[in-house]
Amino acid sequence: GVEVGPQPQGVARADVLDKMRKIVKHGLDFVQLFNEGKEFPPCTIEVFKIMEKVDYPRNKNGEIIAIIHPKLQDQDWQPLKNGDPLFLTLDGEVIPYQGSCTVYPTFINEAAYYEKKQAFVKTEKIKLTAKHLRLSVS
Predict the structure, then answer these.
(1) Does the pTM of the predicted model rise above 0.70?
(2) Please, how many CA atoms are within 13 Å of residue 1, restricted to the half-sphere of its CB?
(3) Which residue range(s) make up the domain with 13?
(4) What is the per-residue pLDDT across 19-75, written as a single tens digit (0 to 9) for each?
């Protein structure tokens, strides 16, 4: 599957549809070239690996007591370091990120994830290396 965004629920956006078409076309072009016997050289790519889902701070009754901090809002895929603002309580208290390493949050404050108790997803940036790739003809 291909998920391209961000876009609000129930909204069809031309720019997002165009991005989805382009990535599907690139995938199909790769399959065609691979099937024609093209050799692809070794490569390295940076990707984001999911570490964990993070919930909103809640009280003993399970009610949300803090919202995403304004400095974190709309900062998907940007580095989040120890001490950076994470949440803002309804009383105005800043709750900072407390982590031993830099993470890259995504799906920050997505409406579709409130019911799943997910404020954002923590990811880590890693590098993947692939050896050359070529169709083996038997």
Answers:
(1) yes
(2) 2
(3) 1-38
(4) 889 999 999 999 999 999 899 999 999 999 999 999 999 999 999 999 999 999 999
Closest CA to 105 of 115, 119, 117: 119
Number of domains in the chain: 2
Among residues 131, 121, 123, 129, the alpha carbon closest in space to that of 53 is found at 121
Residue 34 sits in the same domain as residue 46: no
Active site residue 3: yes
Write the pLDDT tens digit of every residue in 74-119.
999 999 999 999 999 989 999 999 999 999 999 999 887 888 999 9
Q: Are residues 61 and 103 in the same domain?
A: yes
Does residue 125 share a domain with residue 101? yes
Q: Which of 3, 46, 63, 115 is catalytic?
A: 3
